[in-house]
UniProtKB/TrEMBL annotation:
<dbReference type="InterPro" id="IPR013096">
    <property type="entry name" value="Cupin_2"/>
</dbReference>
<dbReference type="InterPro" id="IPR014710">
    <property type="entry name" value="RmlC-like_jellyroll"/>
</dbReference>
<dbReference type="InterPro" id="IPR052538">
    <property type="entry name" value="Flavonoid_dioxygenase-like"/>
</dbReference>
<dbReference type="Pfam" id="PF07883">
    <property type="entry name" value="Cupin_2"/>
</dbReference>
<feature type="domain" description="Cupin type-2">
    <location>
        <begin position="31"/>
        <end position="98"/>
    </location>
</feature>
<protein>
    <recommendedName>
        <fullName>Cupin type-2 domain-containing protein</fullName>
    </recommendedName>
</protein>
<dbReference type="InterPro" id="IPR011051">
    <property type="entry name" value="RmlC_Cupin_sf"/>
</dbReference>
Length: 112
């Protein structure tokens, strides 16, 4: 058992990207921040499933080229091999919870 305080961690890219509260051994758990215009490059996972829950703001997510606009309180589940791309097209910062499981040290395949 352990406790992590999000305030003690940093986002990967300063003010955006994931902030991992846990990486393994069975899953990843992150808070992800997207300022306006910020995106995640399109990718998929061979083994891991990925979930996103919108805590604040609005985010556009493309899953296998189909667009979904999620707002606060909405959740999306992405199966392994489903290509997904996230972008904040709004004028406010979006903050999401992201989980990936089962844990794999390297399972991300970037695409166009």
């Amino acid at each position: 058992m352990y406790i992590i305080d999000e305030k003690n961690l940093e986002y990967r890219n300063g003010d955006n990207g994931p902030k991992y509260l846990m990486k393994g051994p069975r899953m990843n758990f992150a808070i992800v921040q997207f300022p306006p215009g910020c995106d995640f490059k399109a990718h998929y996972h061979n083994i891991m499933e990925e979930n996103f829950y919108v805590m604040e703001g609005e985010i556009d997510i493309f899953v296998d080229e189909k667009k979904f606009t999620l707002t606060q309180g909405q959740f999306i589940h992405v199966e392994p091999t489903e290509k997904h791309y996230l972008i904040n097209n709004s004028d406010k910062t979006a903050k999401l919870v992201a989980t990936l499981a089962p844990y794999q040290e390297s399972d991300k395949v970037e695409t166009d």
